[in-house]
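Study this:
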Amino acid sequence: MKKWRTPIFILLLVGVVCWLAGCALFIDNPYFDVKESGLNWVVIRHYNMRLKPIHRVSIRVDGSGLVTVREGTSLLVTNPFAASHQDPNWNDCRESRVTLPPDEVQPIFQMLVDAGLFEERGKGKSSNTNEAIFVTANIQNKTTGSEHDVFGSDPDFAEQLKNVVMMFYRPQVRGKK
């Protein structure tokens, strides 16, 4: 009887370890099917440093279908909690909103997930593109946020993000003051 205990225990232990490893892979999988939810959101911040002062664009896409576009040279465009009200560009912030059906927003989230939104990225090389792009997201309770310019770590994904920005942002020619 004792001969059978050790192999059964080892098989049981191996089975539990494999099961836990499989669950861990499922939980940390950066690629998954996005379900429609009003709690999903993505914020993309794009900086054009070719222009002085720096031109900023922020796109927030909510799972409910609300898309908020902010643009201008003010720090408020990409940081609503900015406190530098003495900045000469403080008032240069324009906002527009578009409402889409939630089923039209879900494919955008899925495209970003498929492109690697939740992949781990390091700092990467410094890119000399005269532009920077950052992304923050919460999709199906998975969160991510880029601390460093995505162009430096993943230029292909940065182009995908820029394409999403251009889906909703229409640059306007502004008259001289």
Observations:
- Residues 15 and 128 are 50 Å apart (CA to CA).
- The helical segments are 2-27, 102-114, 150-153, 155-168.
- The chain has four helices and six strands.
